[in-house]
Design brief:
alpha/beta; 11 helices; 13 strands; binds uridine-5'-diphosphate-4-deoxy-4-fluoro-alpha-D-galactose
Length: 338
């Protein structure tokens, strides 16, 4: 079966394509390379030992998208392509609404017109805001996200619920917690553009000597060590969850299906704990300074992962230490490319 993967050269997308190919699916990627590089394509082929079709264009180009559907017998879609910088989305909200929502709608129109089903959407735990109770379940009340980026994810979820209901489609909404790590081959991973926003890429660059020190944004949170807590999920485990979600949709004989799954480990780790685990896993030193809180950050978020385990038979398998070791291999590979 042929699966359309938008943003398939991106961080989570590239790892998922490897898992799809390894599970016997054929893959068509559409990616405009706005947040990836062409060498990722070759590396996916090298790591998987398989070929796939690639179209380099922006999904807002509706006619080109339509031609992809005409050329291939698409059996489902995993839609990763989106802008994802929380800070930038506050500066340029229209860029986010236009890109993240129009492209979703274009894809869904093709699905409706061509009577296709099986659509998987990358959402985020940002839709819960600061939840009152931990761990966060899929039916934990949603809060309007603070960032325009987060709002596009919540709006995307609403669009998909209407799509599944009105047109008898099967949809899976995957709410990622904090993805980390790289492929064990050292050939795929996150490509932060400029100064990394996210914790683990920043720690990696600090350990590699590219940054002087890590700024820890706040140690006055109501947590045991005062730093904020998140649920960090290994990217390969996350990639495998997409295949599990796809297989579940394909096996389901009903229509009007809206699966929603939290994808995390179920374990909360503080920023200071993360620094310590990173140092131990890679035998490196990560200098840090405590700074003011970052605006918009929440205190605590970790997932209740029982639904994904019960309904998809998926759970995260990789320890934090193993996941963090892979970031070091990836950084070494990137150093050789520069
Ligand atoms: N942090 C630091 N220093 C840094 C970077 C991060 O102390 O240099 C802290 C943050 O303050 C936060 C934690 O590390 O407490 C994790 O921060 P990340 O930026 O890695 O992740 P977030 O949880 O803030 O954001 C992630 C995704 C967003 C998504 C959000 C909620 O990056 O896209 O989860 O789902 F919106």
């Amino acid at each position: 079966m042929m699966i359309l993967v938008t943003g398939g050269l991106g961080y989570i997308g590239s790892h998922t394509v490897v898992e799809l190919l390894g599970n016997g699916f054929e893959v068509v990627i559409v990616d405009d390379l706005s947040n990836s590089e062409k060498f990722i394509l070759e590396n996916i082929e090298e790591v998987s030992g398989k070929k796939f079709t690639f179209y380099p264009f922006d999904l807002k180009k509706k006619e080109l998208l339509s031609q992809v559907f005409q050329a291939h017998n698409i059996g489902g879609c995993i839609h990763f392509a989106a802008h994802k910088s929380v800070g930038e989305s506050q500066e340029m909200p229209l860029k986010y609404y236009e890109n993240n929502l129009f492209t979703l709608i274009h894809l869904l129109q093709e699905f409706k017109d061509r009577e296709l089903s099986n659509f998987i959407f990358s959402s985020s735990c940002t839709v819960y805001g600061q939840a009152e109770h931990m761990p966060i379940k899929e039916d934990t009340p949603l809060k309007v996200p603070k960032s325009a980026y987060g709002k596009t994810k919540q709006m995307g979820e609403e669009i998909l619920k209407d799509f599944a209901r009105a047109y008898d489609k099967k949809v899976s909404i995957l709410r990622y917690f904090n993805p980390i790590g790289a492929h064990p081959s050292g050939k795929l991973g996150e490509l932060p553009v400029g100064i990394p926003n996210n914790l683990v890429p920043y720690i990696t660059q600090t350990a590699a000597g590219l940054r002087e020190f890590l700024s820890i944004w706040g140690n006055d949170y109501p947590t045991p060590d005062g730093t904020a807590i998140r649920d960090y999920i290994y990217v390969v485990d996350l990639a495998k969850a997409h295949v599990a979600a796809l297989k579940k949709l394909l096996a389901c004989e009903e229509n009007k299906v809206i699966d929603i799954f939290n994808l995390g480990t179920g374990r909360g780790v503080s920023v200071l704990e993360m620094v310590k685990i990173y140092e131990k896993a890679n035998n490196v030193n990560v200098p840090y300074r405590i700074c003011e809180r970052r605006s918009g950050d929440i205190t605590l978020a970790y997932a209740d992962v029982r639904k994904a385990q019960k309904e998809m038979g998926w759970r995260s398998e990789t320890t934090m230490e193993e996941a963090l070791k892979t970031t070091w291999n990836w950084q070494s590979y990137l150093n050789t490319k520069d």
